[in-house]
Amino acid sequence: MRARELSLADRLAALREAVEVAEGRLEVPEVGTTRSLLAKAGAREALGDATVVALAGATGSGKSTLFNALSGAEVSTPGVRRPTTGVAHASVWGEHGADRLLDWLEVPRRHRVTDPDPGLDGLVLLDLPDHDSVRMENRLEVDRLVQLVDVLVWVLDPQKYADDAVHTRYLAPLAGHAGVLLVVLNQVDRLDEAAAVACLTDLRRLLDEEGLAGTPVLPTAARSGLGLPELRAELARRVGARKAATDRLTADARGAATALAVHCAQDAGRDRGPDKAAREQLTGALADAAGVPAVVSAVERSARRNGVAHTGWPVLRWTSKLRADPLGRLHLGDERVRSSLPEAGAVQRAGMDAALRRARDDAGRGLPPAWRDELRRTSEDTEERLADRLDRAVTGTDLGPDRTPLWQRAVGGLQWLLALTALVGALWLLALVGLGLLQLDDVVPLPRVQGIPLPTLLLVGGLLAGLLLALVCRPLVAAGARRRARTARRRLTARVGEVADDEVLAPLAEARADHDRFCAA
């Protein structure tokens, strides 16, 4: 459905959705203005279908005289120096819940037209204070009511019809409200015919340049009555249509949407997720800051230590217990307990900051400043809890099975067998020494292998074979330790990647999705 086909209810619902999405994210005045519009729409729709028309203008424009002429009574005091406060006057035609409406508008001075024109039944006409009043409260009252009325009649005079203040501050900003705006050039009876035509032509040109080509311009002279029938007819046409309030709210909704659209990217809705390289860079930087290299190194050293202990010479295995397990010193395995990993250094923190900044810049590329500011706040909130989440992720990562490989168990058993062989040889030799001391060594025959006494062969062979086996197993143990370290790195990196997705990329993607929803609404 194209935007111009939307009903007012649909427009307001869409604006309400945009405000809800922007709530807590965008710190821009347009959101507050739209919120006020939604409140105004809800209140105005509940106050009936009377048409509120306001006469606005500068001091001396004849606005109050025109108001009295339309009202048929001296309701508002005219004059260059009006002794009124910043309060509007009201004239009411017919009974259409005008009192509740005027209470909402906060207009206390009310006049009920006693002999109303049937064509104006339902009209509530306001005479606003002068927009150029020396009193600030008068100007503020004009600004307030200009935002609330259904139809705005701007009364200009030949001397100040091109006044920059009225065009810049009031008329030009209402370019989207041409259908609910009417411009009156009053006091044309002070001009000759040629001057009046020139004045009207120049005023038409100014309005067209300001985007108000659809706004009618009526010449009037309130004191002589010139142009009053035409003005009454125009007001009667708008009152009779009974849709001036809807037209004004529709124009306001369009204006609010246009103002909010300033905070939308031209290519809203396009997926801007980080590429694979950016995600890998972020994960790598977070892994370094979380101490993953230290854990991987500890896993490798621990696996090497345990492997050497299992495949080394049994006589010297006890020496390995003199050194603490590198992995055990980190207190990993329980997410509820803070690990003993060292704090990230300056280099790691700088790398993490650079990666977070790149992720934020990727997500915010092409976005207006207000949404980039929101991404920056989101990123700052993430950084506050990121260190603890990373530590818990590393601490709770399953680093792989901590069991002794079967081949190391077999080698360990063989080492004990070789040690037992050497021990048998040593005890045999000791027994032979004892028999020699008792001069019984000739009684017991001494087996030999290739001329080498068997006890000596058992002792030396067991020791040398055990030492050689330990040396041969060292590279295999190192390779297994490296393999386990790679497994640990892969699992740790995966967990850190999950943290990167949950704590960094997901919030940025959510903010980007909210931007797209905001712009769609």
Automatic annotation (TrEMBL):
Question: Which protein is depicted?
Answer: GTPase
Give the UniProt keywords, A-Z: Membrane, Transmembrane, Transmembrane helix
A Pfam family: MMR_HSR1
**Matches recorded under InterPro entries:** GTP-bd, GTPase_Era-like, P-loop_NTPase
Upper classification of the source organism reads:
Bacteria, Bacillati, Actinomycetota, Actinomycetes, Geodermatophilales
Q: Show where the G domain sits.
A: 53-164
Q: Which residues cross the membrane?
A: 416-438, 458-481
Say yes or no: keyword Membrane present.
yes
- Per the UniProt record, the source organism is Geodermatophilus maliterrae
